[in-house]
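Margin note from the TA: students keep mixing up input and output lines. Inputs are the sequences; the output is the structure of the whole complex. Example:
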Amino acid sequence: MPVLKFQLDYLLNRIGVHDAELLRDILFRLKCETDILEDGQIEVEVNPDRPDMYSVEGIRRAVLGLLGREKGWRTPRLSGTGLNLSAEKVETRPYILAAVVYNVNIEDEEDLKYIIQFQEKLHDTIGRRRRKIAIGFHDLEKLPGKRIEYKYLPVASTEFIPLGGDTPSSAAEILEETEQGVKYGRISLGEEGKHPFLLADGEVIAMPPVINSNITRVEVGTRHLFIDVTGTDLSTVSKVLDIIVSNLAERPDASVGTLYVDTPYYRGLSPRLETRKMTLSAEYASKALGYYTTPQTLAHLLETMRYKIDSILPHGVRVIVPPYRADIIGEIDLVEDVAIAIGYDALYPRYRVIPTRGSYLTSTEIARSVRILMVGLGFTEVLQLVLTSPTLLTLMGLDYVRVENPVQQEYSVLRPSLVPGLLSVLRENQHVSKPVKVFEIGDTITPVDGTISENMKLAAAVMDVEVSMELIQAPIYTLLRILDIPFEVETVCPAPYAIKGRCGSLKTPDGSDLGFFGEIHPSVLERLGIEYPVAFAELNLEAISSWKSRTRNLE
Amino acid sequence: MTSKSNNKKVPVSESEFRVLKKAESIGWKGPSSIEEASRLLKEPRSSLESIFRLLRDKGLARVRERTRLKPVLTERGLEALEKGLPEEHLIRLLGRAGGALSLREVKERLGKLAGVAIGQAVKSGLIRVSEGRVELVKPLEEALNHVEKLRDVLKAIQRGESIEPPQEVVKRGLVRLEREKETIVELVSEPSVLLGKVSLEVARLTHELLKSGGWRGVVLRSYNIKAEPPKVYPARIHFLTEFIEMLRDIMKEMGFKEAKGPLVEAELFNFDLLFQPQDHPAREIHDTLRVEQKYSLPGISREPELLNRVAEVHRRGWGYEWDPRISLRLVLRSQTTAVSARVLVQRPRPPIRVFTIGRVFRSDVVDATHLPEFHQLDGIEGDYDYTFRDLLGTLQEISSRLGFRVKFKPAYFPFTEPSVEGYVQLPNGRWIELFGAGMMRPEVLEMAGVDYPVGAWGFGIERLAAAYYGLPDIRLLYTRDLRRIWESKKR
């Protein structure tokens, strides 16, 4: 989740709230967790549904609304810029829109830092790390000309000074040699060595989504911003530009400059600053929340959430959704804002007793019975992870399903059996007084003919100075008899890690596998560093469960 | 009655009783030195002394110390034992010579021993020396017998027996007398009399004593009640299981029916049905664990109507062409809400209340607060007139059954609206997130084909369990150290 960092004093001043606790309370109600750090900074965790709150202006707007100090949003003053944007067909990154915001007036380093933070958080979230969307900020007064072009050019023959550099290099070099080039250089690079570029009067001002040119560099003292947004999805490009422009236009003297855009997919003015009208019915809101609302109360509550009221209808309210709200898909999204404006606690939660009967799964009931019986038989329960290391499984000759993208080798495959985990536990407990008796009940995952079979199993093991197979047979047979599962013993041994002739399997009378038992082969114990013999058993609880339900049905 | 008569008797331990019995059988009463008593009673000296002191404390024996002179062999005495006494050599020499030899010959044969040998033999009246001749005055047998007696004395002293040595051996410098402390033990009366006054005290009541009725004649010794017994460990249910089962009980008591679903899950249930667009960051390779794609899931729903609805809702909501192949990719489920999705596509008849508890998986590096897999509890409930306020009520009820007062915070999840998170305060003052919840979005319900509102929530279990048991590190929940399981405290 995006976490923004601000100097607390700076943020309080800019918002005009002078009580940090009040600010934190209001932000909590706006889904944001906050943390005040020791160095006087505040961390604000904003949910990814509210990219409009990634900047100081957006936070200010939302907070003042909920505080009741401001309503609706400020419609920016629009004027022409004389800039034209044309785009040719750029295969790898087709869409671009742009805008100007006048009188942004970047005051100091702090201010600049938060504008860049805004840009970066948009990149990381809605921009999908610049793959879907990338944003370029330019100093308007440094633009080489008014003719802006978006072109698909060969990187070998296109030159510019990358941001932070001082001499021109070829784009090919920039892709290889700059940090941004290495990180983002492959996103929009076409097969024939072509890449999208943004030019002003023929001079490169950006190579989206990688890096800007140094000539339009934004710094402290920059007054007006030229903003480009490129991407792979037009509606997202448009929405992100609307968010940026709406937020920056909240600054005291700011106004918005429009461009005429002429592209294969859109011809018209940019930014589009799209608003939508939506109707919320009072009945719908009341039914969804369990809280009685009227058109009037809805209008009031939604204004504090900074919607504009188009009209109050007899059955509901018609609102104008601000252009910066990316998260309003349907009526239910307005309902949530109504709930936030009321305050969740003020909705008076009520526990309604619904006449349903609770029940457990058969597998839960069997697991519970087995667990208690195993403890009664002197075994202690252990719990291990399903994700495990392949080393032990391979050593024991087991087949398993791999994770395609593991984070750590130790947790890179799925356990097909609970026995390896029990051995890992026993290895760590060789110093305790013998015998050591353990069991686990849990899910296992086995590859079976190209499909995946999941089973809940029970495994038990006994480690002692000397063991005989009876030490495991006796409790397991007792367990099965108490569970009333008839079984037959076969000399077949499905466990490759058991001693031959000291291993057997268990089947139901109708031939389905119940499990197996035996003694662990000394070569396996030696490799594991276990110096005491171990007898083990593994039962398939799903088989027990299904036998139970089969026989129950017969009765 | 029995106990009363026993009270008059003196309780004695099994070893004290045994000593009295032995004394009775050999008719010993003492006084004797402890060494002697040890020999007579066939008890090791070391324990016998303490037994007598215990008997003394009970008024049954006397123990005193006295100083005595103890004979000890000198070096000369030792040599005499080894090589024979000088007069013995002389007597044997004379015997071989027919009873007499010249003094010169004796001196020649015995060397420097001759003087001592002649002197001693004369003193003991065994020989006579006259006119340069040495002559036996007693028959050879008798003379040797005399010497043998002296040797027996020396041997006895060497064995450490406390005998009174004859003056002769002391004077001759074969034996020296040393002062030594000696423990003298003695019973206060005849052992048979004492046995009548005592009763046997035993450490354990045994099957034998019960069967024979012998328990009537014994006293059970009092324990040192304050002594620490040895440590024992019970076979136990794992504490994390106990916590999970407690959650199950709460859900069942509230009327919820349990469900389950697979760990290896199709993205359809883990993401698509939960209205997460196919380019959602959570679905990326570094956020969700996938299994090798060579496998397929048995029985996955390819119901065309369902897939059409999913495609349509995604197209309308997110504005992209939905790809059914992506929805069939296999992942390790990242949320148990996948099970709730499976339940909803069955279109159960309302009112519904369903819960599931199971493992979920994340691409997290393991540390004190992260595990690559953990348990979640997911619940859904729904009915035609079910509301967000009812959901908050249920969440408050679950929290209070867990012993918490919950604080609600608006939140964001792709598949719920309105969404809420529950925070609770631990006894140490720290706030932790207890659950995420919300009303299933209309898009989710439309894809599933459900026509009534549904509330949903998910609890992460491990962090809560770690807080519940006061564990500083979440990894301790999956400890391999059995003592941690055996010693874990009930909360």
